[in-house]
Amino acid sequence: KAGVTQTPRYLIKTRGQQVTLSCSPISGHRSVSWYQQTPGQGLQFLFEYFSETQRNKGNFPGRFSGRQFSNSRSEMNVSTLELGDSALYLCASSWIPGQGAYSNYGYTFGSGTRLTVV
Amino acid sequence: AQSVTQLGSHVSVSEGALVLLRCNYSSSVPPYLFWYVQYPNQGLQLLLKYTSAATLVKGINGFEAEFKKSETSFHLTKPSAHMSDAAEYFCAVNPYTGANSKLTFGKGITLSVRP
After folding, report:
1. By the 8 A CB rule, do B74 and B66 touch?
2. Contact A92/A30 with Cβ under 8 angstroms?
3. DSSP 3-state assignment of A31?
């Protein structure tokens, strides 16, 4: 079956702009989590959505937001981009929240969207 | 609160040599523990996971890890390194509280394999 699909793969934006990233989970998976990966801070949890509701949120400013649609696809949005937002943004899916911890598959990650802010 | 410490940022081994990547965790509750691998320009691939069953966990590509509660460690090993093992490796912890999906990652270790 198809894996986790993230689009676009690469993105270049200018400071002050906003950006929307998309994540389509594995078919049947209803939980989507987002992570930011930077050389300095490593992998940091942004938020998690399940059944169109945000269940958990990391320590990021309000410029970072997300949503989930009824088909479980998720988008994250970053407004008023800053240079420090340049990162690889990864999403991970699982059938239900926490299921990735006890299933045989863990959390399945997409290939990420590489965002560069100039 | 949970945290993961991966000692050292870079490990270099010769092809055929033992691979040992260290991970220590801190968790206020019994944890689930994971090792993920990341190849350049790709996402994270699960190598193996500990879920409170067997303490010695076997994963893909010949990797295994042993959960040692007394040492709060979950070190990753492979008896014989292959050139294709060169990548970045992340240890992660997830608290054993049911429906909490948040993974807390270590800083990662870059593994280089010399011919």
Report:
1. yes
2. no
3. strand
Between CA B27 and CA B48 the distance in angstroms is: 19
For residue A8, cis peptide bond before it (omega within 30 degrees of 0)? yes
Collect all residues of chain B within an 8 Å Cβ-Cβ radius of residue A110. 43
Q: In the 8-state DSSP scheme, what is residue B30?
A: P
Asked if B46 lies within 8 A of A106 by C-beta distance, the reply is yes
pLDDT of residue A99: 58
Confidence check: pLDDT of B18 > 90 = yes
Residue tagged 């560069």 (tokens): A116
Angle (CA) A40 A41 A44, round 5°: 150
Instruction: With a cut of 70, say whether residue B3 has pLDDT above it.
Output: yes
Q: What is the distance between the alpha carbons of residues A43 and A36, in angstroms, rounded to a whole number?
A: 6
CB contact under 8 A, B44 and A58: no
H/E element holding A68?
strand A64-68
